[in-house]
Amino acid sequence: MKSFFSNIFKKKIKIREDNYKSFIVPKINEFRNILIKNDKISFLHYGHLGDIINSLPVLKELSKNKECHLYLQINKKIPKHVASRDHPFGEVYLSEKSVAKMLPLLRNQKFLKKVDIFDGQKIDIDLNFFRELPINFNIDSVRWYFHLTGIFPDLSKNYLEVEGNKNYKNFIVIMRSLRRQNKFINYSFLSSYKNIIFVGLENEYKDLKKEITSLKYYDSKDFLELSSIIKGSRLFIGNLSFGYALAEALKVPRLLESGPNFPLVYPNGNNAFDFYFQSHFEELVEKLTFSK
Predict the structure, then answer these.
(1) Of the given ranges (19-33, 95-109, 130-144, 261-275), which has the lowest mean pLDDT?
(2) CA-CA 20 to 30 A from 67: which of 172, 223, 277, 292?
(3) In angstroms, rounded to a whole number, what is the distance separating the alpha carbons of residues 47 and 73?
(4) What is the total count of domains within the chain?
(5) Closest CA to 257 of 188, 186, 201
(6) Do residues 214 and 278 make contact, with C-beta atoms less than 8 angstroms apart?
């Protein structure tokens, strides 16, 4: 019996090695040649939203010497074996509505020469290929694209440029999804703080309103406006969600509610902390709100 399972394991290893040599390595080498030789490079991404933001450090670094075009693919189906019933866009990575909200933000980035919806344009590098890489996806998700391209930017620097909304300079801004919450964490202590606003989905707001009685809600018209609110705020708080990806890209003072079972995102740079425990959460909020 031991020999039987040992043989199965060896076969699986052999399949992975063959796939690595015949499929992964040639594609990585193809990307490297394009990045070296081409002066103009077109990229494709079909999401999720946070994944798109996480690809920007590499594109910004490349834009120092290359002309970068980014195309977003709408309604790409999520494979059934990884689909989640509680995902906001259902069975697709990116909805048409979400891309309409994303385009103003991406077109505001000077390092992107062109941003548009994918409609059959020639693509040099498919950024979604990171999903094929034989890596542990619990590494910092922003680094997936480093290993895809061989480009290693400085993550202490911002990779989104947005003018901060001065109306929110004294606000704590929260965007907390219903997914990937740390169930050992409670937000009720924030009821004693002034000027707290929630900028995520309305059902997420209603869920957190049960704990923060003073919580207000604002529905941004698009992700450029959302980013300007986060940029202008005193402090951003979020879990593993699109909102935290924006805060990380903007390098505002930020706190990440980390889930013990899914440590996929890590703060990089100054005034950025992740927390797992209630006492640390409360201490960090006080530290960042009174030190700014």
Answers:
(1) 130-144
(2) 223
(3) 8
(4) 2
(5) 186
(6) no
In-domain check, residue 5: no
pLDDT in tens, 190-239: 999 999 999 999 999 999 999 999 999 999 999 999 999 999 999 999 99
Give the pLDDT confidence of 40-71 residue by residue, as tens digits: 999 999 988 999 999 999 999 999 999 999 99
Instruction: Residue 221: give its domain's CATH number.
Output: 3.40.50.2000
Q: In this structure, are 139 and 197 located in the same domain?
A: no
**Single pTM value for the model:** 0.90
Q: Do 286 and 170 lie in a common domain?
A: yes
Tokens of 113: 């020469």
Give the other-Cβ count within 10 Å of 152's Cβ: 13
Domain region containing 56: 14-149
Among 268, 247, 88, CA closest to 172: 247
Q: Of 91, 119, 149, which residue sits at a domain end? A: 149
pLDDT tier at 292, thresholds 50, 70, 90: very low
